[in-house]
Amino acid sequence: MRLRDWITRRQLIVIGAVLALGTAFVLWQRYGPRAVTVTAGKGPEELVYVRSRDDIINAGAIFVPLKSSAKPIGVIWIHGWGVNFYYPTYVMIGRALAERGYACITGNTRMHDLGTIAGHRRGKRIRGGGYWGVASEEVRDLAAWIDFAEDRGFKNVVLVGHSAGWAAVRRYQAEKQDGRVVGVVLASGAVRAETRPTDPEQLAQATRLMAEGRGDDLVRDPKRSFPSFISAATFLDIANAPPEFKDFFGVQTQNPGVTRIHCPLLAFFGTKGDVGTEADLELLKSSIQRQSSRPGRVNTVMIQNADHMYVGEEAQVAETIAEWADTLVRPSLRTNTGEWQPARSIAGGFRRDLVGNPSQPGPFKYQLRIPAGARVAAHQHSTAVHVKVLSGSMFIVLGEPLESPRPQHFTAGSNFVIPAHAWHDEWWDEATILEAEGVGPVTTTFKSQ
């Protein structure tokens, strides 16, 4: 009897152990880290380099689709904190986008990796990376990558900012309002306001180090719960960030940075322990909706089963971006016939479409030929319009009150932006040719309507 009881107990122990191991295996498969798998691409790939205007050289890679499937928009992927352009999942996303017809550039900025020598200036080395870089200067690196894409034949690009890379993307487009950027993507970036106060002792320490010429010396990073350090220069750059970027979507403050983004916006997080959730995406949309000026369109997606780095779900990320970018391409970015047609809104004026159609989704470009003495009554557009004066000149009163006695005067060679939903009044004292571009669809509302 005792032998039988001993055998029974032993069997129960074995069964329990097997069940425990089986449960642990299932939980590991569902919630544990996934192995990174890298496979060869199907199209051409190239290591490339750019030089910013302040002489910082950054490396990257371009993944090119087969010519038969190539789309006219390029995608530029900007890395997150502490990593670089060749992180395995970035490479796989770039290859997957190329398979879907979109050339993808994964590019370093001066913030790549934890620490790096970004360059040399006046005999002194310039440190970069997450510990030493000055993030507000990344806009210069993004400008270099967009110039590179244009040199490769992509006059329109989508900027993707992953994690901390989103801060660089949003700042670039908010500051530059670059007409070549037809869409921006928040890939697991910050949505909520950064409201934590700056530690006064750390601020005093960093300020003193900078005054002593020791900006590379390290101070404790206040944003992390574990021991982590950043340079005094990096600390002060973060502490002195303008308020419109600390609360970019206007969750808590007025006049946030997003009011200066007028191209379409796509935002997504992974469902598997990412830094944001569906609730964050809803907050993003509701905050943007409150703004008087905002992106032309906002789309949000949750990437199923994806973690912060999208391990194993790179194809799903690429498909999400490609499907969204397709809406920017339609109607296709074909060159129009360019025949002059009467302009309905300008008496005696003519218009010719060069790219797309302003009334349809996607990038557009057109020219206006305007006679001397023409005037357009006060009106506004639903999206931002970038204007270049090719010949002649024009006057414009931009923003209310429209009775301003001091209009802006733009002569041949001038460039300016008419923000979305901004009332403006414009007239011409001499024959003028303008070129306008943006991302449709655009609707125009006259103040008298």
Structural summary, described in words:
The chain has about 450 residues and is of the alpha+beta class. The chain folds into three domains: about 1-30; about 45-195 and about 245-330, Alpha/Beta hydrolase fold, catalytic domain (Rossmann fold); about 340-445, Sandwich (Jelly Rolls), CATH 2.60.120. The chain contains ten helices and 23 strands. It has helices at about 1-30, 90-100, 130, 140-150, 165-175, 200-210, 230-240, 245, 280-290, 315-330; strands at about 45-50, 55-65, 75-80, 105, 115-120, 125-130, 155-160, 180-185, 220, 230, 265-270, 300-305, 340, 350-355, 360-370, 375-380, 385-390, 395-400, 410, 415-420, 425, 430-440, 445. The strands form five sheets. Strands 1-2-4-3-7-8-11-12 form an eight-stranded mixed β-sheet, sandwiched between helices. A six-stranded antiparallel β-sheet has the order 13-14-15-22-17-20. A five-stranded antiparallel β-sheet has the order 19-18-21-16-23, with no helix packed on it. The protein is globular and about 95 Å long. About 40% of the residues are buried.
